[in-house]
Specification:
- The protein has 15 helices and eight strands.
- The C terminus is likely disordered.
- The strands form two sheets. It has a six-stranded mixed sheet with strand order 2-1-3-4-5-8, sandwiched between helices. It has a two-stranded antiparallel sheet with strand order 6-7.
- The chain starts with 14 loop residues before the first helix and ends in a 22-residue tail after the last strand.
- Helix 1 crosses helix 6 and helix 8 crosses helix 14.
- With 368 residues, the chain is α/β, with parallel strands linked by helices.
- The chain folds into two domains: 110 residues, no CATH class; 182 residues, no CATH class.
């Protein structure tokens, strides 16, 4: 007979601790400093204060004072599920105790933190309606790659790509594309997480990403080899802003601009073209899977899944068929992009973009 999973019972506090809470609720002055910090989840206080400074740049007291003045906060409130599942009388005792021991500023700070948290959750719910399930799942898979830590640890202020314009016939459409792309970047980054740090939020990525737009008419309708050569000159002359990609860049042609017009609003997605900066015509015979030096990257995926999973040229793990710990070579990314039947854009549906790969899927790749 099948046995069904049963949720374990909550860890109910010992009776002596509950009695101490009752005493603290009626006579908060009787609590020692350590007891008070235990109740407020700030014990040991010194280590908690150091952690707070490392995460926010503020001491606990400074953070409380800031939160008491505004609900414009980026940190999220976290609630113990055990508290919610305690018997109602213990919940009431715990709540009464916290009300008694918290200062007025701490109560204001908690209320503002609650409002900030609720507002963030509302924004996340709205964002989920604007991104496809497959894009969202691809981002979740990419969260397993330690790319967030690398970006957060880089000394340069910004991270991102150079983006070269190659179509100049419609200014209105170009500006619409830029707006759509920037909106899609922010949307995708909303769902990035750092599995190594449960307190991390994507705000740090959102505040630092950058596109260095290059609008030089010399690139109008240029061949890919010429665009790659142009980018390499920019790089060699030190004209690429610090922190932006040195071995990969983006470029926009008329079809990419049109894709953003045809697939708006989100979650329908246009694309941008991502190019291997080392590409030239002599390398074509060495490529696999029909790769020709560039790949279409979905607007919602360029700064998330594509950025996270690409193995750049020159990496010790780079080879034409490489996949290492969810990271993929240019050729593999191009191959996976061809699973997207509508636009041949990367990433494809998430089930086709996991770490494993079965050659049986080769038969359903759509050739351009």
């Amino acid at each position: 007979m099948a046995t069904f999973y049963q949720r374990p019972p909550p860890k109910v506090p010992p009776q002596k601790l509950v009695e101490r809470w009752e005493q603290g609720a009626t006579d908060p002055a009787s609590l020692t400093f350590d007891e008070r910090q235990h109740l407020l989840n700030q014990h040991p206080y010194g280590r908690c204060d150091d952690f707070c400074k490392a995460q926010t740049g503020l001491t606990i007291e400074e953070l409380v004072q800031k939160a008491a003045r505004t609900d414009d906060l980026s940190s999220l409130k976290r609630i113990s599920l055990d508290v919610i599942r305690w018997p109602i009388n213990i919940q009431d005792t715990y709540t009464a105790m916290k009300e008694a021991v918290m200062t007025d500023d701490e109560k204001k700070a908690q209320a503002n933190a609650d409002r900030s948290y609720d507002r963030r959750m509302d924004l996340d719910r709205v964002a989920r309606d604007r991104i496809s399930v497959h894009d969202l799942n691809n981002i979740k898979i990419s969260n397993k790659v330690p790319w967030v830590t690398c970006v957060c640890n880089q000394i340069q202020q910004h991270w991102g790509f150079v983006c070269i314009r190659t179509s100049f016939h419609d200014e209105s459409a170009w500006h619409r594309f830029q707006h759509q792309f920037e909106e899609a970047i922010d949307l995708g980054l909303t769902f990035v997480r750092n599995p190594k740090d449960k307190f991390w939020t994507p705000d740090s990525l959102k505040q630092r990403w950058k596109i260095q737009w290059v609008e030089d008419p010399v690139n109008e309708n240029a061949a890919l080899e010429d665009i790659c050569g142009y980018f390499r000159i920019l790089r060699d002359e030190g004209k690429i802003e610090p922190g932006l990609g040195q071995d990969t860049f983006l470029y926009i042609d008329s079809a990419a601009i049109q894709s953003s017009l045809d697939h708006c609003p989100l979650p329908e997605r246009g694309y941008v073209l991502a190019a291997d900066a080392s590409h030239d015509a002599t390398k074509l015979p060495t490529y696999l899977h029909g790769f020709k030096g560039s790949v279409r990257a979905a607007l919602t995926g360029a700064f998330t899944t594509f950025y996270a999973r690409l193995i750049p040229r020159g990496s010790p793990k780079d080879n034409p068929a490489a996949e290492h710990n969810l990271r993929q070579s240019w050729e593999v990314i191009y191959k996976r992009a061809k699973f997207d039947g509508s636009q041949n854009a990367y990433p494809p549906v998430s089930i086709m973009n996991r770490a494993w790969y079965d050659p049986i899927y080769d038969s359903i790749i759509q050739n351009e």
